[in-house]
Amino acid sequence: MNIILDAGHGGIDPKTQLYVTKGKRSLRPIDGKWYYEGVENRLIVKEWATILENLGHKVFYTVDPNDYRDVSLTERVRIANEINKEHNAFLISVHSNGFHKETANGHEVFTCPDYNDSDRFAKLWGDRYRVKFPDHAYRYGKKRANDKEELFTIIAGNRHVKPNYNSILIELAFHTNPDDVRLLRSWDYRMKTGILLAQTANHFQ
Predict the structure, then answer these.
(1) CB–CB of 83/89 below 8 Å?
(2) CATH number for the domain including 181?
(3) Domain interval for residue 125
C-alpha cells in the first residue's frame, strides 16, 4: 500500500536551536525534558516509515522528517494531492494532543465528515489499537465510533485547497499528560504502533 505520512507541526531550527511552532509542547518538563510535539512527530514518522517499508509498503511524506520547517497546512495538502495523483496513496497525519490540565489523556482518531474509505481505515486502526493497548484510554466518536469527525485542514481542506486523497488524523496521546508523554517516548510504543499501522494497511488493501 502507498502511504503518505504527515508529521504535524515543526521541529528545532538548527541555527537558533529553538522550537519553531508556538505551543504544541508539554506543560512542563517531563522527567527533566520538554516534549515538543513537532519534534517527536518527526521521530515517530521516521520510525514508522522504516517499519512500513520493511513490511512492503511504499512511504511518501508531506514534509521530509529531517526538515525542521513548519510547512503550512495548505501546502501540505497540495503536496499530498500531487503524491496521490501519481501513486494513489492514503494519508496518515501524526499528532499528539494537548489540554490545559494534565489529567486529560488517551488516543483519538479523526476523519472528515461523510462516510468513505477514511472511516473504514479508522475502524480497522481503532479496533487493533484497543486490543494492542487495552490500558490506554480510547476516546470514541459519536455512537462509540472509532473516529471523530472534524474539518481539520489536512484531512478536509480549506478555502484554498481540497484533498483528493483519503486520510485519518491520529492524536496518539496527550503531550500535556506525564504518563502519556512517557508512553509516546517509549521505543516499545513506537514500534508497536508502527507494526499496527502496517497490519491495518495490509487489511485495508
Answers:
(1) yes
(2) 3.40.630.40
(3) 2-204
